[in-house]
Write a structure and sequence with these properties.
This protein has 5 helices and 4 strands, in the order H-H-H-E-E-H-H-E-E. By secondary structure, it is α+β, with helices and mostly antiparallel strands. It has a single domain, classed as 2-Layer Sandwich (Muramoyl-pentapeptide Carboxypeptidase, domain 2), CATH 3.30.1380. A hairpin with a 4-residue loop joins strand 1 and strand 2. GO terms for molecular function: hydrolase activity. Pfam families: ATC_hydrolase (PF14196). This is L-2-amino-thiazoline-4-carboxylic acid hydrolase.
Amino acid sequence: MMPEISRSLHYGAVRDRARIYLAIFREVSARYGQPAAISALRAASRAHGLEVGARLAHLAPRDFSGMLDSYFLGPGSETYSPDVRELSATCLEVQYMTCPLKDGWREMGCSDDEVCTLLSCATGFDDGVWQAAGFDYELETWAPGKIGCCRTRLTEKRGT
């Protein structure tokens, strides 16, 4: 558990990352169009996720308790208020109840559609993490009217 000051600083740092994502997204959209901006932001997010996921690969194929402790409940996780919905021998499902990225975009006046688009771009990170870590996953991003933010469900990778 992080001390409150550290938690606040971490939350602020991630929220500031939302500002950078938005600035890049808007700049690339203005220069090359929104499809190019989505592609670029997703690719950059995915590249970062591949780096993070490689450090978690020792937990594949089914150490869901280890993944919960190392990733979802690890240092800084309080920032996202993870709610563990399922932990079993075959699955780990976690619902994030808070998200400084989403909060940052909303504070900057982004519409619900913009927030959904930016979250979709940010899920490139998740694609990279779970591919490199060696897990199959389902990801449900936030949509207007939903509580919290994204929900992740991990299972053992099927086939190669």
